[in-house]
Every structure is written in structure tokens, then in C-alpha cells.
Amino acid sequence: MTRPGPRWWRTGGLLAVAAAVLAGCASIPTSGPIHEGPAVAIDNQELIYRAIPQPPQPGMSPEELVLGFLAASSSAGDGYSVAREFLTPAAASSWNPLSQVRVYDNSGIQTRLTAPGAVSVTGTEDGVIGSDGGFVVAEAGKKFQAGYRLVRVGKDWRIAALPKGLVLGSGDIEREFRTYDLYFFDPTFSVVTPDAVTVPVTGAGAATVLVSSLLSGPTSWLAPAVRTAFPEGTTLTLDSVPVVSGVAQVDLSPQVLEANDQARQALSAQLVWTLHQLPNVTGVAITVGGQPLPIPGVGPVQSVDSWQRYDPDEAGSTGDAYAGASTGLVRLGADGRFQRAAGAVGHGRPLLIAPSVSLDEKTVAGITPDRRQLWTQLAAGETPPVLVGRGTDLSRASFDRTGALWWVDRGSGVFILQNGRPTARVPIVGLPAGMTSSAIEGVSIARDGTRAALLVRRGGAVEPWVARIERDGTNVRLAAPRRLEMSVTDALDLAWEAQDQLAVLGTSTRNGLGLQVFVISDGFSQTQSQPAVPGATSLAAAPGAATLLGVGGKVYVQNPDGWTALGAGNDPAYPG
Description:
- By secondary structure, the protein is mainly beta.
- The protein has three domains: 34-176, Nuclear Transport Factor 2, Chain: A (Roll); 180-313, no CATH class; 314-573, Neuraminidase.
- The protein is 11% helix and 42% strand.
- It contains seven helices and 41 strands.
- Strands 1, 4, 5, 6, 7, 8 and 9 form a seven-stranded mixed beta sheet that branches. Strands 12, 13, 14, 15 and 16 form a five-stranded mixed beta sheet that branches. The protein has a five-stranded mixed beta sheet with strand order 28-32-31-30-29, with no helix packed on it.
- 50% of the residues are buried.
């Protein structure tokens, strides 16, 4: 994938701290009988091996023809022209390859002749890429099945009816597609938020694909939670974004002239943030009809380092971590030692566990050991703590960027406390049939405020999910929750490591390696992991900071060689 993987050792935050403490079926295996062509550079950013699709051969059986079609479908060259040769003229003209992409597991698929001219394809499904590039993970072990109807055209078979879109193996996706983030805004236009799309590698170039996708708007899943600054109808003038001497030339249609100064700055940020993922792009020039678009505060060429003020990962500090202790909440200082937190909660009045900290580090929250009460206190000074929530089995709370506090009362649902308003239960819409909000066991709010990571109990295990946050004034709800990754089968804790990456402490049936710290990115990507300290039950992660684990009354910090004990404490937490 094009996005950077997790940095298992973060250079910021706790670097100094750690230094201080040291059967009768034809089958296709992964991507079919494809010949590899020469390495090709995509916008000079990487070398990849392209598949050279093979056309149909005379005398192919129905099963062989379907397998050949699936193999040829992995190459988008010339509008999937070779793949269309396997279809009847009518099917070839009506087939829309990218209306969706069903992805099957790399263990392969099998074909079976079910009737004369009818072929069934079966396997295990990994997920579906929608027409907007959004990837939806399939249920673990979901069976894949598709049917193809063939007819004779002359002496040979051709496919007359086929499933919608493409059917590809995960290996095909890794070779022929790339996952990028498009950037939109939170509803207040305060910070950018990523929207992962998985798109085919084409001769148009990544810069063109990214800008075209950005102008088309967010994926259908994230759209209700985000905003765009581009006026409706804005398009590329020439359907091309050439990169000349490192500068991406973005020539937009006249609709963009309708944007006011503030909107022009915001849309510039969207373009710069989206294109900065490409290593060959060092700057962005925005023009209309070849003339520079006037944008207050910037010149005709904007550096990819521009608009950092919209970075949600920069909101708040991540240098100070909190933890629970037998005498009260403690705070990790720059010297790598835990110190008593300020105020009554630092003296155990009341005794709190599972702390959470607001992004501005002004407020700390925690729950009582019986998990029935949630308290907050200002992080500085001696102001008395405030009881803000009650329940029967409270989770660790999570602050959002507005200062609102979210938590779960297990068995009852998700709750929110917004400034100046009574505690309210958060409505959750779009849960799968048969599931209720009582299945949710934990919540962590992304720093951009548009997504909530959830711990969801299902079938005796806890899974990592994500839901979008929809806001209408002070009314808030969680919508369209979905599983984020299929291999993590029992999650203990989770936290946002970056705006597009979630750290999860848990186990996986796929790797059989025991307890792990997984780093999961949205979209089609390979989840990465490393072994956790045995017995770990909680996790803390934040942008630019080393991951922390809570293990049997001690806090451990991640370092290049594994994990190092920092000191006594439970349930470590960073701001946010």
C-alpha cells in the first residue's frame, strides 16, 4: 500500500523516557494464469510488476474460459479490453468493471460446471470495494459464490451473463490497486479527516486519479460525517494532473471561482493533503483556465508542507501519559517516572482507574474500581472532582475534540456528556440485524471527531469496529458501524495511533502468535502487528508517541527491541 506503515518506534513523546529506562473442481490459486510484465513506474513513486493479460484461446472449455476471464480481469489496461474478449459483444458493452470489486481470499477459488454453459465460482470472500473506492470487510469465513452463463459464439464459448463488477483475488488487489487517503473536513472546517479509497493503477497516473476522486466527493460511508470546500460541479479541466518538476498542476473548472477566500484556503488544504502522499509531488499549483487561482496567504505553488494547521494529529500534546495506581492517578513526567497527578484524584479522592485526558490536557477523567462512577477533574490546580456519570459496568471514557466525554455502560449503550448539557444516550443506527447497542463494550473517538472506534462483543469474542459520527447541532449519533478488520478475533483494547491508523490489543486466529498489538488502517491494507507483553490488558497510543501497555500493575513502553517496563501503573492513556 502507498500509505506508510506503523512506526513501531516513535521518535517523539516517550523516546527520551525509554532511553532513560531502557474435489472434482478446477481451481485458481491466488491470481490465476497471468504473465508478469516489466516493472513500471507509477508517477515515479514506486516500481510495480504489471500483469500481462492473456486473451481467450480456441477450444477453451467453459471452466477454462471463466478462469481466463478472471485472470485477465486483474489488468485495467485499455479499459479492460482483453477481459472483454471473453464476453459476448452485448455483455462486453454493458459490463462496468468498477461498479464494484468482490475480493476473494488468496487461498483461491474453485470453478464447477453446474449445467451446460453454466459455471459456478466459489471461495472465501475478503470484502467488497465499492464504486467510490470504499472497502468493506467481509464477515470472517464468509463464502464467496458467483455464477457465469456462457453461450457459443461460433465454435467457442463466450460469457453472456456475469456478476456485477470485478471478481479479484487479494493478491490481484495488492498488485493492481493502491490505497490512498482523500482528505475532507470535519463539519466545522477545523481539521482534515482521511477517507481511504482503493483504486486501480492506471496509465492516467496517481495524481490524476486522486484529484478526480477528491472532486467526486467522499465515500458513501463517510459522506454524512464530513464536508468539502469545493463548489458543486467542480471538475478537472483536462482530466489530467501532470506533475512537472515535482509540482502537481491542478487546472480546475470555473465553478471553483464561486468559492470565497476561506473556502479557497480549505480546498487548497484538501488538495495538498491528498497529493502529499505521492513522493514525486513537492508542490501543488491550482489554476483555472491556465491562470493561477487567487488564494489568500499562499503563492502560486503551495508546498506539500502547507496547511499543517488543519492536522488533527497535531491537536493537543502527546508527551504526558496518565495511568491508574493504588494511591490515585499518576502522570508520566519527562524524566520517565510516574508522579502523583495534581488534585484530589492524584490522592485517591476518589480512587480512580482507567484514566482519560482531554486533547487540551486541561481535564482528566477516570472511573471508580467498581466501574459504577465516572469522575472528572481539571488537570491543574486543586479544584474538586465532579461526578459526571453513573452505571453498572463503565468503560474507559474518551474525549472528543469539542471537549465532550464519551463512554460505554456495558449492556446499556454509549453515552455522551457535552458541555452544559445533561448526559445523553447516543443513538446508534445501522447495526446488523439482531445486534443492539448492548453489544458495545468500549469507545475511542478519532481526533478529527468524525469517527468512533468501538469494541463490539459478538459470538463470545470482542471485535474492533468503526462508526461515523453524525452531528446536527448538539444532537449526535453513531451511524453505519462496521467491522474494521477481519483477522483480529478477540480485542482487549484500542486507541487511535494516527488519524488513519488504529492500534488494537488482541489476538488473531490467522497468525496463531498469541497476544499482539495490531495497527489497522481503513481501506484495503495489510494489518501489521508485533507481539505484546503477555498478560497485557490495556493499551495507549497517540500520534508521534510510543505505544504503552498496561500489564499486571505495570506500564510498559514500546522500543526498537520490544518492550521496557516504565513503572507501576494500570490502564495508561494519552490525551485524546
